[in-house]
Amino acid sequence: MTQRKRHRSSNNAKVSWHKVRRFLLVAGICVLVYLLYVNVVAPYAPRWLALYGNPGIPEGYSIRGIDISHHQGEIDWDELSQARIGDELISFVFIKATEGRKLYDDNFKKYFSEAKERGIIRGAYHYFSPSVPAKIQAENFLNKVTLEDGDLPPVLDIEEAGNLSVEQVRQAAREWIAEVRKVYDALPIIYTYYKFKEKYLDTKEFNQYPYWIAHYYVPEIKYKGQWKFWQHTDCGHLPGIDGEVDLNVYNGSMYDLRRHCIKKEE
């Protein structure tokens, strides 16, 4: 009897330990799934929607636009000019022109000409490299881009600090802006994402310039300051363009948008 009892007791212990291990395994899987959802799925849920063809169109804006570079490849401009973002035709397009010391976007000249022919308000932007002096970068832009009446002002795309301090970033932005303002009597547009703006450029000095904010997959912008353009997704799809394209809205009326455009003296 004693041996049987010990044997039975041993079996019960094994069964109990098996249940504990199974419980711990299930609990561990549940915790892992929860952590994955909280840290990976939930924060990027709008991103998943965008990737699967639903980038979201912010409500309350009637003026829509895009920004493009050589990444968009061959564009059917006749088809694109009739494309709609939500219920609205494309009103404006920003086109990458230059980057850093001497880079010139291969498709800029063609895109810039095609946009004008279709009556789309056009703008040109320079992608800022923190490792190159700002004056040299401004010269790169000015040597390769000629803006005309009705074009949007020059755009400084500044979103990398590199090894520069906050004050060095600000000084570089000042120098680039100063150089292009010698040629164009219009306030340049500053493009960046809102956290970069808040850390480096959210000052009274820089707040005077039209701000083009990149803030993706949200129904409204978290930035509380003034802004004019909002790049709300990089996963847009439009007729005339193969692949994805950035979509934007303008915060104002068409009259206001045209007032921002360059007006050269005769």
Q: What would you note in describing this structure?
A:
- With 266 residues, the protein is an alpha/beta fold.
- It has eight helices and ten strands.
- It has an eight-stranded mixed β-barrel, surrounded by four helices.
- Helix 5 (134-144) runs parallel beside helix 6.
- The radius of gyration is 27 Å and the shape is globular.
* CATH topology type of the largest domain: TIM Barrel
**Highest-level CATH class of the largest domain:** Alpha Beta
Question: What would you give as the CATH superfamily of the largest domain?
Answer: Glycosidases
Major sheet characteristics: 8 strands, mixed, barrel
**How many structural domains are formed by the residues?**
2
Widest beta sheet: strand line-up: 1-3-5-6-7-8-9-10
- Rg over alpha carbons: 27 Å
The SSE order reads HHEHEEEHEHEHEHEEEH
Poorly predicted regions are: 40-46
Approximately what portion of the residues adopt beta-strand conformation? 15-25%
| Spatial separation of the terminal alpha carbons | 114 Å
Residue share in helix: 25-40%
* CATH architectural designation of the largest domain: Alpha-Beta Barrel
Find the structural class using helix and strand composition: alpha/beta
Number of E-type strands: 10
Note the topology.
Layout: H1 2-41, H2 45-51, E1 64-68, H3 77-81, E2 84-85, E3 88-99, E4 103-104, H4 108-117, E5 121-127, H5 134-144, E6 155-157, H6 166-181, E7 189-193, H7 194-201, E8 211-214, E9 229-236, E10 245-250, H8 254-260
Parallel strand pairs: 1-3, 3-5, 5-6, 6-7, 7-8, 8-9
Antiparallel strand pairs: 1-10, 2-3, 3-4, 9-10
Helix pairs in contact: 5-6
